[in-house]
């Protein structure tokens, strides 16, 4: 099979699995790809809602025999959900274009603190994917024959791979595919909890009396302080309930305009559904006096008790459907990790804490590298832990509270600085201050309980990731400082500069292009030192043999640009301005000059579309591109820097087009660049 046929086959397979490229020229693209509040609730709220499968049970069991103290745990949980949700609504107001834990801490505290918050979130999202899929696999295999149990890990791995493929197709497509599962969970739980509570409405006075008696007994046995500490311990053990609340503020860029209103509505849906589900489950535990049973989750015991009078067919069928919906929702909950994890990666990459490639988009307009990294991390963790839910739960929920605390601290600092300047500063300070106290308490308690059980592993991995991010940022800063030294060339070629321009003037100004004359097609990325270095190198190599100069720039639509039509328009306007500067520079010296540009997610493909027509117009065209060269090429430089020019050279060679690379060497002993001679 020829290489062309192999490429064609690979392209067809990719289109079948991932889908066709999305056209950036479509004016309604942002509207089509964005999520309304309902679909955002599905895609971002499943993580929080799925925690009702285990969070209330952990809190309830932590009370031991003093189960009726769960009333206070339920009230505290509902209050905490409300406070954290309202606090994140304040963040949505302040950062309407997207304000997750990384952005908030970076802007309101410091970039370094934001980096720590971002690293904590990334580890949390990998754990979210792994734990959700592993829990879902456990739940599904609990209904299957015991002989199938050895294949549970393989099924979990397949589940992660399927989610990777779904998200590579696009966020909206992945969410739409998961809507039936989400709604099945909501409907079955609403029916079960609603029936359980209203069927026992007449027993509420008796329940209140039992709560009073249990409080009295607990007071005698534990004392007031001991009882208070027991409730706090159970409250903190249910901390997994609050994970996922931050997902909306992280995911604002994918929401429908106006994003602030859509985000707040999504947050309201999430908070109400989570609070009602958690409180309803705990109340039903009390009403039906649920006790643990071997081989069953506490929710399975509860739903069996609720439907005990429905008959074996109806009741058994309903319990099965309800538990299956819980199992499948756990798979859906992993979606939050795939939606928000790559977004945090891209934001950190834009700020140079992580390799810049994580900010790039695929032709499906998703952060493909981020999705693959999150999926790969989840697969590795799944294999290392053998899909053990008990182990993963120990590692889980610490990191998200690190982000909660830093976000609330940043908001408190913001409101304190804004005191007296804005009317709602007191309300904001109180709300975010309460959120800070609650999340800080839970963080301390969860870390204390889980640290020696294995929670230290999570903190160690987060610390190592933060150290790596710090090293990456230092490298980018050093390289950036050297590249900025090239910008002195901008002043040298400025016509108004008193220095003699190094570009020679033609004695006879060219009024029109000469298609038969040698032509330099120069790829640039803005009017900067690197582009001017490439231009000067071409002039010094070829002198006046070049009659025509064609400047080409590709605007890369990455995560920073793909936030709305305004950013895309700003990118195009900036390219036109920079290219016209090059064109004007050469025309003033008597050369013919023109500019061409395009926007896209793949630089090589866009240039391959532009190059043949240019060569047809100018048969003697030679293509040029600048490339940063390090004296010592290492794995780090290959990972952190774009070597797309070499890929472009190979592709143009295959088309029979000549391409020359103009090197810019940064790591000279004297610290300065080498100008091509």
UniProtKB/TrEMBL annotation:
It comes from the Bacteria. It is found in: Membrane. Its main location: membrane. InterPro entries: AA/rel_permease1, APC_K+_Transporter. GO terms for cellular component: membrane. The keyword Cytoplasm does not apply. Keywords: Membrane, Transmembrane, Transmembrane helix. Coiled coil: none annotated. It holds the Pfam family AA_permease_2. The keyword Transmembrane helix applies. GO terms for molecular function: transmembrane transporter activity. It is a multi-pass membrane protein. The chain crosses the membrane at residues 68-88, 108-129, 149-168, 175-198, 222-245, 266-288, 308-333, 365-385, 391-409, 429-449, 455-472. This is Amino acid permease-associated region. It comes from Solidesulfovibrio fructosivorans JJ]. The lineage of its organism: Bacteria, Pseudomonadati, Thermodesulfobacteriota, Desulfovibrionia, Desulfovibrionales.
